[in-house]
Amino acid sequence: MLLQLVVSGIANGMLYALIALSMTLVYRATTVLNFGHGDMATAGAYAGFVLVGAGLPFIAAFALALGLLFAAGFLVQRFLLRPIMRAPHFALATMALAVGYALRGAARLRWGSEIVNLPRPYPQGAFMLGPVVVTNDALVITAAVLVLFVLMLLLFRATRLGRIIRAVFQTERGAALVGINVPLFHGLMWGAGGALAAAGGVLLAMIVPLTPDMGEWVLVRGFAAMTLGGFGSLPGAIAGGVLLGVSEEVLGFYVSTVFTDITAYLVTILVLLIRPRGLFGRQALARV
Amino acid sequence: MSGAARAGRRLFWLVPLALLPVPLALNPYQQFVADLVLMYVPVAIGFNVVIGNLGLFAFSNVAYFGIGAYASGILMAKAGLPWWITVLPAGLAGCGAGVLTAVPALRGVRLFYLAIMTLAFGELMRWSYIRAEALTGGSMGLALPRALLFGWPLDDARKFYVFLALAVILVIATERLLCSRFGRAFMAIRGNEVAAAAMGIPTGRFIVIGFAWSGFVVGVAGAMYAALIGHLSPDSFNLSELVLEFAIIMVGGVGSQLGSVLGAAVLTALPQLFMSWPGSEELAFGLLLILVILFLPRGLASLLARWHPIFRDRYLLEE
Questions:
Q1: Which sequence spans correspond to the domains of chain A?
Q2: Tell me: the pLDDT tens digits for B17-44?
Q3: pLDDT per residue as tens digits for the range A197-238
Q4: Which residues in chain B touch residue A272, judged by CB atoms under 8 angstroms apart?
Q5: CB of B124 within 8 Å of any CB in chain A?
Q6: What global pTM score does this model have?
Q7: Domain residues of chain B, as ranges?
Q8: Is residue B271 within 8 angstroms of chain A, CB to CB?
Q9: Least CB-CB distance to A98: which of B103, B117, B289?
C-alpha cells in the first residue's frame, strides 16, 4: 500500500515540482516572488482550452499556449515591472498580484458560470505495474514534467543562454559589467516563468475541472514546495514538490484524509518556523 | 505638528458630524453600502498598522477578520448572547490571532517568507471554518439571529450610527497609538529594524503590540460584519477578500489612516457597480492596482496632501 501511495504521490508531486520550479526560476532571476503565478497557470490552461476548442491538435495547442504565456510574462516584466524596478519589494510583489488578479477576473467574466474541462488527448485508464496501479494521467504528467526538466537542464548546461542565466544568478552587476543585457534577461525569465506556468496549468486542467479559482490552489502548492525544498534552490524546488505530493498521499491515508487538503499549509508554516532554509536552501536572498 | 495644523486637524471632527444625517437620505440599499464602507474602515486601518506602520509583509488580516466574525457569530447563534456583548470578545479573539501571527515575525521570518506563512495561516483558518461544522455550520455557513443592541434590534439607522461610532473610536484610538511612543517605535522599525534595535528599542515587544492592536481592530470589524451580513460562510474569508483589503490600503495610501478611510470608501462602493457581471470587479481591481502602483505609488492620500497641507500625514510610506 505504501508503494502505491508513493507512486500516486509522485505524479502529483511532479506537478507541484513544475510549479515550484517555475516560480523559483523567476525569483532567482529577478528576486521578485510572483504572487500572480497561479493565475498565469490558469490563464495558460484557458488558452489551451480555447485553442483545442478551435480545432488545433492537442500538442500544437499546448505549445501555442506556452508561447502565448511566454509573451504575456515578457510583456508584464517589460511594461509593468521594469518601470518600478527600483521600488520596494512591496510594490513589485503587489504588481505581480494585481496582474494575477486581473487575469482571474477576466477568466471569471468569460467562463465564470461554467466548469470547463480540457479533454485528454489520450484514453483515460490505468494499468498494473507489478503490484501498483498506475493511471495514464500519472504516467503522462510525470513524463511531460520530466521532459520539461531535461529540456531545462540542457538549456542551463549546454547553451549560451544557460551560461548567461548562471552568470546573472551569480551576480547581476558582474553580468551587466561583462555586457549581458540584464533587463532583457529579466524579461526572458518572466517569459519562461509564464510558459512553465502555462505548462503546469494545462497539465493540471486535464485532471481537475478548470475554474477561474484554480490559481489559488496552484499558488499555495507552489509556495509550499518552494519552502520545503529551500527558497531559491532549483533542485530544492523539484525535491520539495515531489516530497509534498508524496506526504499528502501518505499522511492522507495513514493519519487522516484531511491531510490531503492541509499538508501544504502545515508544511509551509512548520518549515518556516523550524528550519526556514528548507531542505536545500542556502542563505536567504535579500533585495536590499 | 504645528499649532495651526493641530487646529486644522480638529476640522476632521466635522466629517463624522456631517455624516450624521446620512441615514435620512438613503434608501435601504444605499444604506447597506454606507454600512459596508464604515465596516471596511477598521478592516483597512488594522491591516495598515502591520503593513504600513510596522512595515511587515504579513497577510493574515483576513484571518483576524474571519476569527472576529465567527467569534461574534458563534456567541450570538450558539450562546444566545446579544450582538453588542460579542463585540469586545470578537476584538479579543482577533487580538489573540494577531499575537499568534506575531510569533513567526519574532522568530525572524520576514519579507516573502512572512507573506507566504501568513497566507498559509489564513487559508488554514478558512479550512477550519469548513471543518468545525458543529460550531461554524461548515461550508453551508452559519445563519445568525438579528443583531441586538441593549435589547433593541439594530435597524438600518441605528446600525449606521453604531458602525459610525465604532469606526470613529477605532480611528481615534489608532491615531493616539501612532502618535505615542509606540507609533514612533513602529516607524523606527519600518525604517530600519536593525538600527531601531541598536538604538535600544525593544523591537520584538513593539512588533507583538502592533500585531495585537491590528488583530483587535480587525476583530471588531469582524463583529460588525456579523451584524451587517447576518450570515457567515467560509468563502467570505478567502484570498479574494484579502486582495480587496490589500487593494484598499494600496489605493488609499500605505501607512496612512486617511488613506485607509479613503480606500475603504472608494473600493467598497466601486464593486457595487459591477455586481451583475461576476469577474468584472476583480478585473477592475487588478487594473486599478496596476495603475496606482505605476502612477500614484503613495495612494489617494498623497493626492490630498498635495492639494492642501492639512492632509499631510507623516505616517504615509515615502518611496
A1: 2-213
A2: 777 777 777 788 888 888 899 999 999 9
A3: 999 999 999 888 899 888 888 898 999 998 888 888 888 899
A4: 104, 109, 113, 116-117
A5: yes
A6: 0.87
A7: 26-236
A8: no
A9: B289
